[in-house]
Every structure is written in structure tokens, then in C-alpha cells.
Amino acid sequence: MSSWSIRRIELARRVSEILSETCSISFGEFKLTSGKVSPYYIDMRRIPGYPKAFREIVDVYVELIWNTVGVKGFDRIAGIPTAGIPYAVMVAYKLSKPFLYLRKEEKKHGLGKLVEGVMNRGDRVLIIDDLITTGGSIINAARSIRLEEGSVSDVVVLIDREQGGSRNLKMENLNLHCLTTISELINFLREMKAISEEKYLEIAKYIEREKTIQYYK
Length: 217
Hints:
The protein has seven helices and eight strands; from the N terminus they run H-E-E-H-E-H-E-E-E-H-E-H-E-H-H. The protein is of the alpha/beta class.
């Protein structure tokens, strides 16, 4: 096992602790942006409300990028609204990279842009988001960047919910780099006694069922 593989597991375990400590993972019945219903919900918007945890998560993104894409592999960083933006802007600051953000829909005033910030033709843009489900928001962002003559091939997220996102990104010639999967994350939560055995089994069953469904957004 490589040194990065070992380090990745350490970071993933710490992320699971932070999610639990900040109550950023909830259990119940939740409707997702994709329209899907899930027995758990990860709310990364909470974490910036805890400065120490926020700094740790930003540093995790930085380390993930260094060990996957590499800082020479892109020119600019783009954040996905809304949860991905605070992480993307801090990572851009730490890596001294220009920051962009994507609008969900075109403005009806001003320049009517979908990509906000400075982007030159041919600039290589790294997309950052908090997590991925089916990948619809990320794919729309990549299309917007390409429409404005930017180049995008890599996407970095903290958590893959394992619901077709990676597969869907590949169909758009996008490479997904994630720190951890929901399967690994709930295993850590189970080891930490942060979830009951009953809840663990319920979520594990949900994950396996979702893997068999062919989603495309």
C-alpha cells in the first residue's frame, strides 16, 4: 500500500469524525437535489460554522489535490453552488489559484454569464464540490465552462455517495477524484459507535441497492 493510500484512509477517518462532531450527517428520510430519497444526509454547509473543523477540511482538500490532480494540472478552481463554494474559494486561496464560481442559471441582467470570475480561452479549470450523487450539477458546470471556451477534465469532491456520479462523469470525459465513499465513511462511523448497527445495515443495504440502478443526469 502506497504512503498516499495509507494517508488517505487516515484523512477519511478524520473526516468521518468531523461530520459526527459537527452534526453534519443526519439519519432519517431526506430528499436530495437529484430528487432521490436517502436514509442519510450530509450537510457540508454546517462545517464553516466550526472554524477549526473548516480549516481541517480545507487542508484535506489541498492534500487530496496535491496527491491526485497535482497543482500543475490546472490553472483555475471553480466552485459548485452552494455547498462547494466556501471550500473551493479557500482551496484556491491556499494554492494561489484564481477562483471562479458557477451559477445555477444564467443571469437575466448584466453580462448574463454562467461562469463568474476571470477565465481565458483554454484555461484548465478544476471543479470542486462537497460530494457527488449522480453528478448532475457538476456536469452542468463543466458544460458551462466548456461553452465559454474553458477546459475541464478533473473534479475533486470529498465524498462519493456511490449513486452513479463517477460513471456519469466519465461519459462527459471528466475524471472524479474523491477522498472517500459513503461505504467507507459509514464503516468508520460504525467503528466509532456513532451509528447503531441497525442504522449501519439500513444504509449499507441502501448503498448496495443504489449501485445497481443506472442513473444519468
